[in-house]
Specification:
This protein is mainly alpha-helical. The chain has helices spanning about 10-15, 20-30, 30-45, 50-60, 60-70, 80-85, 90-100, 105-115, 125-130, 135-150, 155-170, 175-190.
Length: about 200
């Protein structure tokens, strides 16, 4: 790793855009209690998801949980769904990786990125191995955010590579924001910036 890449200058020249899907997902990973609080608040005024909540509390079928990750779950119940998936992470994580490589379903992609950042087991190596195979640039962008939360500093060159790849091939899409946020989180965790 060339340490001069992660400098104050790098982050000043490449700023975080707060009004992007990537920043929204990053914030939800960073502060999962905010999502739970928002769901609890909405639940006080809406009962549309109460029946689904009761069903979800009893659900242990991995196939059904995966189906729910693809959008078959009210957004109010997503924190509970994430918790249920995390209870079965050893069974579901390998299947999620297989699906993540091919998926174009943004709901599944976002749910998976958030869940993989919170697993008890470290899946950073698995995520790094599939990063170049991920079909959706949006999914690849969010995978970079997840890596910022779970990988070690050896992931920096890969995230830098993705950052420049997205800037070159998707200059209007904000996909580079995922890699930038991942790098920012790695710096927050390991203090990598060199003056």
């Amino acid at each position: 790793m060339k340490k001069e890449f992660l400098t104050d200058k790098f982050f000043k020249e490449n700023t975080v855009k707060e009004l992007t899907a990537q920043f929204f997902v990053y914030t939800q990973i960073q502060e999962p209690l905010l999502t739970e609080f928002a769901s609890d608040y909405v639940r006080k005024y809406e009962d549309r998801a109460d029946e689904e909540k009761e069903t979800l509390l009893r659900e242990n079928n991995p196939d059904i949980l995966l189906k729910m990750l693809r959008g078959k779950c009210d957004v109010i119940n997503q924190p509970l769904l994430h918790q249920k998936v995390l209870e079965h992470e050893e069974t579901l994580a390998p299947r999620m990786f297989e699906m993540y490589v091919k998926s174009l379903n943004t709901v599944f992609i976002e749910n998976s990125a958030k869940i993989l950042a919170r697993t008890q087991n470290d899946y950073s190596e698995e995520l790094l191995k599939i990063l170049d195979e991920i079909r959706s640039p949006y999914a690849m962008s969010l995978a970079c955010i997840t890596l910022g939360f779970i990988a070690d500093k050896l992931a920096v060159p890969m995230l830098l590579n993705k950052f420049y790849y997205f800037k070159k091939f998707y200059p209007e899409e904000n996909y580079e924001q995922g890699a930038l946020l991942g790098l920012m989180e790695l710096d927050n965790r390991f203090h990598l910036i060199r003056k």
